[in-house]
Amino acid sequence: MSYRKSFRLICGLAGGSVAVVLAAAAADSRGYFGEQRRSACRGSTFTVQAAQPAHHAATPTGHSWDFNWDKRDPSALTIKKKDSMTENPSPEQDNSKPKATRNILLIRHSQYNLSGNSDKERMLTPLGREQAELTGQRLASLGLKFDVLIHSSMTRATETAQIISKYLPGVELSSCDLLREGAPIEPVPPVTHWKPDAVQYHEDGARIEAAFRHYIHRADPKQKEDSYEIIVCHANVIRYFVCRALQFPPEGWLRMGLNNGSITWLTIRPSGRVALRALGDAGFMPPEKLTRT
Questions:
Q1: Nearest by Cα to 232 from 169, 288, 181, 267
Q2: Taking 60 as the threshold, does the pLDDT of residue 40 lie above it?
Q3: Where is this region: Disordered (predicted)?
Q4: Confidence of residue 95 (pLDDT cuts 50, 70, 90)
Q5: How far apart are CA 112 and CA 121, in angstroms?
Q6: In the chain, is it the N or the C terminus that has fewer CB atoms within a 10 Å radius of its CB?
Q7: How far is it, in rounded angstroms, from Cα 89 to Cα 243?
Q8: What does pTM read for this prediction?
Q9: What is the pLDDT of residues 233-273, one digit of tens each?
Q10: Domains of the chain: residue spans and CATH
Q11: In angstroms, rounded to a whole number, what is the distance separating the alpha carbons of residues 293 and 284?
Q12: Distance between start and end Cα atoms, the chain
């Protein structure tokens, strides 16, 4: 068949077929086809490639950071005066602004006796006591000036804190019922092996949220120096605190796992910004000492 006859034949195709041919040619010119195939015409090759998905950058969710998440943003606490718009704020306004950074180190209790029928019987195992010793050594090695060591009133957290405190002489030790273990909020996705009833979520959730509001917030304006505080408590409490502090959906708390005796480090800036410096750090323990009970 001559070239002219071939051209007439192509032009005689239905309009839709021509559109398909033209579209294929355009796609080929843009590199959408890449897989090489052998043509029946004179042994030449042409490139055919499966269409590649477009590469899209992650888009923001639309949820902006709430700088007044702890209700301590100075701009929300004080009434703006005429001179608040000037470059030189009044001494009263300047004194209302936090200047220090709070560092909160959340420690999960060590391994304990799971077969205990009451809280008093759920004391640390021999391995749990070793884990607490290692955590205390790790905290001491950081060379930080710790201001306080607060712990849950449950036996396993109390014993863990007491062992840690041996390595931090002079640090005040105190107990708090708000930090007890519980069910903070129904997790998403749900799990089958753990299903507290609605009453437990209602009661524990309110208590653990109260603990979050009490302990996790920016520094008071009167605080002059950065602080380092240790809180020894439980996995559910720590995971919930992390989600709330980072303004992540709190129902995702059960998607994280924490080893016994691990260290989670939150930093809260005067501006209200929050950073997670460590989550469940247990790298200071030998592998054979790691547990997650």
A1: 181
A2: no
A3: 79-101
A4: confident
A5: 9
A6: N
A7: 35
A8: 0.77
A9: 999 999 999 999 999 999 999 999 999 999 999 999 999 99
A10: 102-287 (3.40.50.1240)
A11: 18
A12: 80
Nearest-angstrom CA–CA distance, 7 and 5: 5
Distance (Å, whole) CA 104 – CA 146: 10
For helices 3-11 and 15-29, the axis angle rounded to 10 degrees is: 110
Token pair 């997670």 is at which residue? 276
Q: Which two tokens stand for residue 108?
A: 């999960």
**pLDDT over 80 (residue 92):** no
Candidates 142, 178, 172; CA nearest to 157 is 178
Task: Dump pLDDT digits (tens) for 51-87.
Answer: 555 556 666 666 799 999 999 999 887 655 444 455 5
* Cα–Cα dist 73/219, whole Å: 11
- Please answer whether residues 122 and 245 qualify as being in contact, where contact means their C-beta atoms are separated by less than 8 angstroms: no
Tokens of 95: 């004194």
